[in-house]
Amino acid sequence: MTARALMIIVRSVTGTEIRPGTELGRRVFIDRGSAVVTGETARVGDDVTMYHQVTLGGVGWWHDNGRAVGQPRHPVIGEGVVLGTGATVLGRVTVADGRVVGARTLVVRDVPAKARVHPRPHLRRGALPHTPQGAIELLRRTASSGSW
Q: Which of 13, 44, 146, 147 has the most crowded Cβ, counting Cβ within 10 A?
């Protein structure tokens, strides 16, 4: 059985689509794998945790057509990274080792060391003030919006 045929069977049973060309490290943990999708040229390091609805994809033909033939177009995820529920990482960007990408976050640029990425609060409906009470409310909303 070819890798592509196996991927189709697994996708139909689990809802998870790991493309045959994706490089997965050791001990990658996909918690509730429903709707997890990885691109053909994505690379995922060791000890990565991915929650449901994570996408590691390309940015689309309008951008990818400008790439040289054979040049990778999907993300590189470092070791020990946590990708929260609904995180979307697009293009040939790198998420450095040990980073956390929060739930419902769109990443289209490299995530450097010592960075933590989360949705911008002022872009969400019902943005919260920058006060201790606002921080507590933000934590309550984030914690209830999906697993980390």
A: 44
Is the pTM above the cut of 0.85? no
6 forms beta bridges with none
Residue 95 lies inside a defined structural domain of this protein: yes
Q: What is the DSSP letter of 111?
A: B
Any domain includes 131: no
Segments forming the whole domain that contains residue 38: 3-120
| Residue that is written with structure tokens 């003030």 in the block | 129
CA distance 17 to 10: 7
CA angle 101, 15, 111 (to 5 degrees): 15
- Each residue's pLDDT tens digit, 67-84: 888 889 999 999 999 999
